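> call design_seq(struct)
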């Protein structure tokens, strides 16, 4: 099975602790993760995002937290069973790492995807879309951090 992996990294002018307050709280996803209109049924270990589609529809996506190491690392799984994503993906895992840096924090996002069926032959399209999503998330964090001081 094909398992494309996309890694995106960006320096963000904020401390890991300040960023952790945002990234570890699913309720704050609409502030920085692209396309998230709102979050429902959120706990620290599971949540549902409501995504906006280009046609103005709502699409729900469920997630489960796999690992949290304060204030350095988060890993979560997109729950695909009985979702619209199930026909394309058999597995979707994302990891976020916060590494202190002189100018703030280096934020790395890594997504590993296992493609299903004929989708395996369109891996480059899925990879490109995932790259855009991760870049958008990093841009969202950078925008959110503008004005925060690094102590």
């Amino acid at each position: 099975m094909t398992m494309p992996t996309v890694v995106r990294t960006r320096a963000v002018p904020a401390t890991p602790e300040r960023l952790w307050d945002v990234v570890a709280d699913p309720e704050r996803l609409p502030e920085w993760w692209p396309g998230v209109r709102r979050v429902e049924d959120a706990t620290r270990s599971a949540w549902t995002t409501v995504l906006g589609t280009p046609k103005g529809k709502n699409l729900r996506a469920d997630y489960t937290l796999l690992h949290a190491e304060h204030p350095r690392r988060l890993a979560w799984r997109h729950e695909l069973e009985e979702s619209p994503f199930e026909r394309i993906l058999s597995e979707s895992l994302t990891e976020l790492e916060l590494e202190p840096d002189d100018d703030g924090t280096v934020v790395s996002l890594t997504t590993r995807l296992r493609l299903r069926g004929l989708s395996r032959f369109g891996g480059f399209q899925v990879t490109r879309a995932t790259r855009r999503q991760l870049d958008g998330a990093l841009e969202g964090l950078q925008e959110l951090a503008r004005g925060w001081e690094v102590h």
